[in-house]
Design a protein that fits this description.
mainly alpha; two-stranded antiparallel sheet; 11 helices; globular
């Protein structure tokens, strides 16, 4: 035991998960913010994003009765035997995949092993995660398609024809507001992928399941998150940012504003549907897929074949990440104990 009761493998898993998830998932949320504000000093963007992190963490702890995971771990209790080495390995695999720019779902890659080795308490959680994430992808695909089928021919063409012109200040204000909204909704959904490694109490009462984290963990995790985001912002997003930059007009602050509002609204809707974790990566890819298909059909800013190949590639990467997560969740405990986890 070490660091106030935080076990060695729990600490290692938390640190690796925090870095890899920030590098993989967070940049999908902040990518348009970074690309459309590339002329701003990185530390200004970092301070803005970190102010939202602190606000969300404080809200979760003091308003939601010490639950900085926002209910997403209600059905995934802390392992009775503690964190084992195989729990900490999937985030390391995620770290490797992130270095190659593969946008895998951190929710599945990190949480699957906890859902399959948690016994009766986590029975059926993986299936519910798959259903919720699949529905999220479809909703985002249709939402992106419908919005951009309606505006692509006018909106995106207008943006494309005015890329070299100065942008009025009110667009900057709108884009920073959309980033704050989206970033807060992403944190509420995905902090559980990081905090699953932290010791916590799960209590059943008249109001349902309640998860409690010790107060020192609030300070420790907040500091770690701020430091990791400093690195991500200083490097302007790393490899995953290339996915955002490959989409049509995403460097423009006006286009980024609309993307962020739609993405944030979808996450906001799914936040209250259930406390089951979902893949925000699938939602992100679904939104971009609907957007790119609509733009290719309505505005001609890119070929339909190119857009279809782009969408198929993103889906293949997400599917690859799901396969890797299940293989690790089944294979690692079996290699260590000789027993297969139950689905």
């Amino acid at each position: 035991m070490m660091l106030g009761g935080l076990e060695l493998f729990a600490l290692i898993g938390f640190l690796i998960a925090a870095y890899s998830i920030v590098a993989n998932d967070a940049i999908q949320t902040l990518g348009t913010f970074l690309s459309s504000n590339s002329r701003q000093p990185w530390w200004i963007l970092w301070l803005y994003a970190c102010s939202i992190i602190v606000a969300v963490m404080l809200y979760g702890y003091f308003v939601l009765n010490s639950d900085i995971a926002f209910g997403r771990l209600n059905r995934i209790p802390y392992p009775e035997t503690g964190i084992e080495w195989w729990h900490a390995l999937p985030p390391a695999v995620l770290l490797v995949l992130t270095r190659f720019g593969i946008p895998v779902s951190t929710t599945f890659l990190v949480l699957t092993i906890f859902t399959l080795t948690g016994g009766a308490a986590t029975e059926g959680v993986l299936f519910d995660m798959l259903i919720k994430s699949g529905v999220g992808y479809i909703v985002a695909l249709f939402a992106g398609g419908l919005v951009y089928f309606a505006v692509a021919n006018s909106w995106e063409r207008w943006i494309h024809s005015t890329l070299d012109r100065p942008v009025p200040i009110f667009w900057v204000i709108l884009q920073w507001c959309s980033t704050a909204f989206l970033w807060s909704q992403w944190l509420i959904q995905d902090l559980a992928n990081i905090f699953v490694f932290l010791p916590r109490q799960t209590i059943q009462n008249g109001e349902g399941t309640q998860v409690f984290f010790d107060p020192w963990l609030l300070v420790f995790t907040t500091v770690v998150m701020l430091v990791l985001h400093a690195w991500i912002f200083a490097t302007r997003g790393g490899e995953i940012q290339k996915i955002v930059l490959s989409k049509t007009n995403t460097k423009d602050i006006r286009a980024a504003t609309l993307i962020d509002f739609i993405y944030g609204l979808i996450l906001f809707v799914f936040k209250d549907i259930s406390d089951v974790p979902m893949s925000t990566t699938w939602v992100f890819l679904g939104l971009l897929a609907g957007r790119e298909i609509a733009i290719s059909y309505m505005s001609g800013l890119r070929s339909r074949r190119e857009a279809a190949f782009d969408v198929a590639t993103d889906v293949a990467r997400a599917g690859f990440g799901l396969v890797v997560s299940v293989v690790l969740a089944v294979g690692l405990p079996w290699a260590a104990t000789g027993a297969f986890p139950k689905f």
